[in-house]
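In the current project phase, the collection of sequences with tokenised folds has grown. One resulting record follows, to show the layout:
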Amino acid sequence: MADSPIICAYVARHGRTSLNAGHKFRGSANPPLDSVGRQQAHKLASLFKNIDLSVIFTSDKQRATETAKIIAGEKDTPIHISSNLRALNVGKFSGQPRNQENVDELESYLSDPEVRIPDGESLNEFRGRVDPCFQEAVELFMEEGVPPLIVAHSSLVHELGNVYHSGNHKAVLVEPGGCAAIVLHNGKLTSEPIFKPLPASAGGSASTIT
């Protein structure tokens, strides 16, 4: 008989910012949530209202810390801020349009994980600081029996897929304000999306929970 899946840790993507809305790279930029992003954060707060969390870990970028504080709300869940949870530092691309020319150039750097993006970091440098955070979150669950929540960026959700789906970085992608989870199932760790908001361009008021 198969074991029931057990959620070991949640990984939420921060709400929308003006750079998300403008289809620009965020990276090391530090924009706040916009009005839609705050609404998305409140939807996440509603999702977690009756879910026990041991701690909320968040990136130190204000779009993530704002989202984390809204989720914490009146839950009295402690928040720990960590620069290790920052988005992939895309260097010179931060704040620039996500047009095809820029996307292709960035991909040329990411195709070799050892190559550092100009003024940024390499994919392996990013993985070196982020992957241990996933491991520590799971270890915390194993110790306390209550899952933590990580509030961070789209690049971390990409990496969640990469780690737990054999390099498929798109396996658990969610829109801003969405949430994935690290799950223990039949003795193996995997990841899956659990809250998938519709894109804000489609109205953003409806969502699906899987």
Remarks:
- The radius of gyration is 16 Å.
- The chain has one domain: 6-24+34-89+127-209.
- The helical segments are 18-21, 35-48, 62-72, 100-110, 123-144, 154-164.
